[in-house]
Amino acid sequence: MTKRAFAISAHPDDIEFMMAGTLLLLKKAGYEIHYMTVANGSLGSSVYSGMELPIVRGGEAKASAEIMGAIYHPPICADMEIFVNVETQSRMVPIIREVAPDIILTHGPYDYMEDHVNAGRLACTAAFARGMPNFRCTPVKVAENDVAIYHSLPLSLKDQLNKRIVPDFFVNVETEVETKKKALACHKSQKEWLDQSQGFNSYIDDMVDRLVKTGELCGKCKYAEGWFRHNPCGFCAEDYDPLRRDLKDFVIERA
Most buried residue, 29, 47, 155, 174, by CB count within 10 Å? Predict the structure, then answer.
């Protein structure tokens, strides 16, 4: 039976920054991996128009997914329009039912940006509704498998109140750093934008710096991604923890 892991982020490049190392390790562990950004990246540029940018960033995201060996799923809304409502949820639930993932990697509720928080909430709610035949969407075929949800660290490594986030556990992603770099490099349209809007010095170097800082927080590896496991109630059995199980050689618990 095919095991599936689904990374769901807000924008193109979020997965590459904070989730891709773990996703790549899951692929090596035998998972079919899936890649989706809820929004189309339409506001992330001072060069391209709002009509041009989704096409550019969609192509970059597809190229990144291809490098990672992931199945690409197109976005369902525009930037800053990720809202938790029935319209958006009715577009997300069928995707979760179709993929029927064993693992979902997504943003956490403590993230600094509302698009990120809402993308994570949509992923969680869609996973919760995956087996509800009376939830109105098309197609209606439900998924009844267990799913475990894991929340990544925010890009800033801090929450909305500027407090440092310490994850429940870490994944040593040292073997995947080079592939993360190649995948992130696909997002060429973002380098100049992030340099200007968020003070990045170097797009790829900044990603590596976050891995190093998380590794320092872990204290037992050089490059790490940090994770929280979502409450399993309504999603899976209490002891269903496939990420820790299948990446046991790479998982480091918080001291």
Answer: 155
